[in-house]
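User: Hey, my collaborator sent me this sequence without any context and asked if I could get a structure. I don't really work with proteins. Can you help?
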Amino acid sequence: MSKKIEDDKPKKALFLQRFLAFCIDVILVSLLASIISTPFMDAEKMEKIEQQEIQLLEQTKSESFDVDAYIDSYININYKTARYSGLLSLVVIFLDVLYFVVYQIYNNGQTIGKKIMKIRVVSDDGDLSTNQMIFRSFIANLVLVSLLKYIFMLFATKETYFYGSGVFELFQYLIMFISVIMIANRKDGKAVHDLLFHTSVVRE
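Assistant: No problem. I've predicted the 3D structure and written it out in C-alpha cell form, which is a compact way to encode the shape of the chain:
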C-alpha cells in the first residue's frame, strides 16, 4: 500500500530539466526586455561608454599605469553604464515579476521553459499561493538582487553603488551555487528557495 502511494507521488524534476527551463526563461525575458527598452535607450551615449571602456583597458598596457586612477575610472564607467541602462533594468524587473509570478501562478506553476521541459512548481502545503511565488522569485529569479541594485543606482553615490552591487552579486552567485549543489544532491531536489518557501519542482 505504501509502495502504491509512493509511486503516485509526483517525481522530482531532474537537474537538467530545471537548468534548461531556467535558460529558456532567462533568454525569453532578456530578449523581450531588450525589444521593449531599446527604442528608448540612448545608443550614442552607450557607444561612448564602450569606447571609454576600451581606452581604460588600453591604459593597463601603459608604463605609467596608475592603479588608483584606473579604479576611479572603472567605478565611474560602471556607474554610467548602470544609469544609462536603468530603463532596461527596470523593464527586466517588471517582466520577471509578471512572468515568474503572475504568469506562472496562473499556468499551473509553469513558465514557458518549464512547460517545454515538462516540469512545474508545486506547493508542499496544498495550493500554490501568490506569496510563495513572489518570495520564491525574489531568490530563484534574482528579482531581489536586481531591485536592490536598481535602488542603489538611483539613490547611492557611484562608489556605494559599485561596492554595494558587488556584494549583491556575490550573494546572488553564492545562493545560485548552493542551490545547484542542493538540486543535484538532495533526494527531494529542493533548492534554497524551495526550502524557504515550501515548494517543490516536479515532473508532469
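In plain terms: Residues 158-185 form the longest helix (28 residues). You can pass these C-alpha cells on to your collaborator as they are.
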